[in-house]
Amino acid sequence: MIEVIVTGRRDEADGICSFELAAADGVALPPFEPGAHIDVHLDGGLVRQYSLCPGPGQAGRYLLGVLREPVSRGGSAAMHALKTGQRLHISAPRNHFPLARDAQRHVLFAGGIGITPLLAMAEHLAASGCDFALHYCARAASRMAFAERIRAGIVGERATFHADDGGPQQKLDLDAALGEPREGVHVYVCGPGGFMDWVLSGARARGWPEDRLHKEYFAAPSQPAGARDQPFEVQIGRGGAIHTVPAGLSVLEVLARNGIDIPVSCEQGVCGTCLTRVLEGTPEHRDVFLTDQERAANDSFTPCCSRARSARLVLDL
């Protein structure tokens, strides 16, 4: 846990604010790689993850871009209530969305607030002299955070802007932007779930291999309409107590009600903080943290959102 002070706040676009954070003790904050995020601890016990986006002259400080969600679970509303001078606690940086070190070219797709990790990537790539292209999409030009910084900075002409309310000539041609899959070229996407699924589906349709598609979700995808949760049991270790998980409650909630606390952060299957080992049974994975290979192994799951396909899961707790 690192205590920080909000040293700056700025309206970046419609509904989006940036927050500059500095260590309360004046020491430089830990360095991080592009794509990294931090946990922000807010009032009421809320913990939310936000991508880090450095700015010029901000060595040792962090910059976050936060969208005020219309239907907030509390995190974005609490962030937008912050004022300059307030203190709060954050985690050290973690990175589940790194740049591929062996890539020869990087193609970045940002949707809305998904620009935050991709801007950090783009500026790093530009400063390193790497080959890349950034495509920034939003519903309207007025909702594009950091747009002037991108245009005037080192990313410059390697960024292309695509607004839904703009003319047809500037709309994103996904096939053209992706091109044919080539060795050494990697694709990165971050933004709303629907946008990400569209980009990833388009890439897969063109034959892009999964190991060259990199993604970071802000939330796990919603379950299909009409899908119904089925009750199941969780057992604490082999021979331990058995608890029923009814429809409408998560494993995490059931365990907490029975005095079993598991570290948790996002509560949406994004961060992996609550990842728990499965000794027996088959999970129904609903997270976006585990890879396809890790899911297929069925030896761990995220109890904050995932459930069970089998009648019982035996957990290593």
TrEMBL record:
Residues 1-100 form the FAD-binding FR-type domain. Residues 232-317 form the 2Fe-2S ferredoxin-type domain. The keyword Metal-binding applies. GO terms for biological process: methylation. Keywords: 2Fe-2S, Flavoprotein, Iron, Iron-sulfur, Metal-binding, Methyltransferase, Oxidoreductase, Transferase. PROSITE patterns: 2FE2S_FER_1 (PS00197), 2FE2S_FER_2 (PS51085), FAD_FR (PS51384). It holds the Pfam family Fer2. GO terms for molecular function: 2 iron, 2 sulfur cluster binding; metal ion binding; methyltransferase activity; oxidoreductase activity. Gene3D superfamilies: 3.10.20.30, Nucleotide-binding domain of ferredoxin-NADP reductase (FNR) module, Translation factors. The keyword Methyltransferase applies. PANTHER family: CARNITINE MONOOXYGENASE REDUCTASE SUBUNIT, NADH OXIDOREDUCTASE HCR. This is Vanillate O-demethylase ferredoxin subunit. It comes from Pseudoduganella namucuonensis.
